[in-house]
Design goal:
The chain is mostly beta strands. It is 5% helix and 53% strand. Strands 14, 15, 16, 17, 18 and 19 form a six-stranded antiparallel sheet that branches. Strands 5, 6, 7, 8 and 9 form a five-stranded antiparallel sheet that branches. It starts with a strand and ends in a 15-residue tail after the last strand.
Amino acid sequence: YYIFEALNKKDDNFTVYYREVNQAAGKFQESKPLFTTKGDVAALSYVPGSFLGVNVGSKFDVTFSHDESKILIQYRNKPESKNDAKNYDVLGFYVFDTNFNKLWGKEEKMPHTEKQMNNLAYTVGSDGTVYMLSFLNETKSFEVITITSSQGLKNKELPVKKGLHFESFELTETANGNIVAAGYYDNGNEMKIDITGTMRGSRNVNGLYVFEISKTGALVRDNDYPFSIELIKKYLSLRQKDKADDKEADGKAGINDLYMRDLYLDKSGNVVIVGEIYYIRNEWQGPQQLPTIHYSDMIVTKIDSKGKLLWQDKIPKNQSYAAKNSMMGGGGAKGDL
């Protein structure tokens, strides 16, 4: 087990370290440096639904290749301009092997401004290539960006389905070096009123979109898997089922507050996708209102290597806790369990 740390020096540079956990002794080993940034680092873009996960509020993100032979540490430089229409993000990418030997590391300027592109997902291949998926707001299209130590950054627009709205994606590498991308799409946010009378936004997810691209960025396949009304209504109350039927008549039935948690491939090349319903709402906890975090039903999907839907099911559950000493705004609440 390893712990990654990032310390800010007086000159606004960050040094990233790793520390091994000695499990037999129950102690940390000595910190060892991995790299130092060339300037100040900003928080990574907020990933909705992953509060208490890896990305919210973090300045560095750690990703592993599918075969776990490569480690990618990625970060975003502090923007030169606060105007999204003028600023081009500069992202740092450092790739290591499992012994923490640096294979390569560099910073790259994005080909579009922050206003023009949304960064959706990152991964690293078993050969050390970094893959990045972005959405171009003007053309409503996807773009794949590849970054290597020798060739630098290359970007290519993908001829995939348009007209769907996504907030995030997950990427993973296949056995033959292709990249599979998966994301939930929705028809927008709905406003819900909590039991305390507070309004909150709720994302209404309608289905799953999966596509595969080759090492060169060519589209291999793409598939749309809309949720069936039977899946949507499963384990709902009678009142909730009636509401789902009303939405289905308008073509807007979906699963609220669903976020992707995991994407992986089994030994046969089948794609397994795990999603979870997640939301925060104000609730009474004794004499006070506290933001309460809910982890609810899960949606598990299995797709074969050719894109055929094998099965999809909903697993009912509900876990929750109140965030004490809460701090609302931005990514939600934070506090003690």
